[in-house]
Amino acid sequence: MPDKKITQQTEHITAILGTDLLPMVGNTATTPTNYKVQVKNFLSQLAIDLPATTFAAVGVTASVTANANAAIQAAGSFNMLANSSAQVNALDRFGVIVTNKIQNGNTTILGQIAAAHFVLDTCNANTVASNTYGLFLEHQTDNTYAAARRVQPQAYIGITEDAGSNVAAKTKYLMDVGALGKSVSQDLANTNVSVIFSVTSDRPATHMLKLRVDGQDVWLLASNTGPA
């Protein structure tokens, strides 16, 4: 290949394959050396040392310059695609795996710790109130490949717990509603239909939400009679 500046190279505009190559410089702390690296190895073997300051290993900022009525916009998109005409057995398959692991006990967390932190800030935008969610989960069927779902999904959310040998360290609550001292209710002493949580008098249960706890079916009873 003739010597060219990177800006003089032909732009690659088709799908990038895992076996495509990227130029890189390694051993920068000792003896800088030119290397090639496959895209799949570059993406799957990133090891970034975080400084003791506020820092993200990967940061993506998608600046929206124009809003189109029919556009679906996202800062990131992850897609796991499996296509096989033959029977294939797979152990686990996840679209995304997020892990926050402390490997020893020499760390004291002074703030919050979580596997993932999602923030929705609609500011003063005129969002559709009935379609605004902090997190949206969807089971769906791609009608391009299948006319109907083959089996029934087990649940929208699966929760496991493992405290090791310390049974007393089991997770205390399923949810902490009103965490960090940020109350979700404006009226804790009376019924209030406009808030997440309010104190209600006994009322007959008219609906049941089916859950499974430790492999056993249970039902969360609810009433369709709202507060006065």
Task: Characterise this structure.
The protein contains one helix and four strands; from the N terminus they run E-E-H-E-E. The protein has one helix at residues 39-44; strands at residues 21-26, 33-38, 207-213, 216-222. Helices cover 3% and strands 11% of the residues. Strand 3 (207-213) and strand 4 (216-222) form a beta hairpin. It is extended, with a radius of gyration of 25 Å. The chain has a domain at 17-55. The longest helix is centred in the N-terminal third of the chain and has 6 residues, at 39-44. The model has no long low-confidence stretch (mean pLDDT 85). With 228 residues, the protein is largely without helices or strands. A two-stranded antiparallel sheet has the order 1-2. Strands 3-4 form a two-stranded antiparallel ribbon.
Strand order of the largest sheet: 1-2
Q: Note the beta-strand portion.
A: 5-15%
Q: What is the mean pLDDT?
A: 85
Q: Based on DSSP secondary structure assignment, what is the total number of beta strands? A: 4
Please give the largest β-sheet.
2 strands, antiparallel
Oligomer: single chain
User: How does the helix and strand content classify structurally?
Assistant: little secondary structure
Order of helices and strands: EEHEE
Q: Number of DSSP helices?
A: 1
Radius of gyration: 25 Å
Helix content: under 10%
Separation of the first and last Cα atoms: 78 Å
Task: Looking at this protein, list some descriptive labels.
single chain; 228 residues; little secondary structure; two-stranded antiparallel ribbon; two-stranded antiparallel sheet; 1 helix; 11% strand; extended
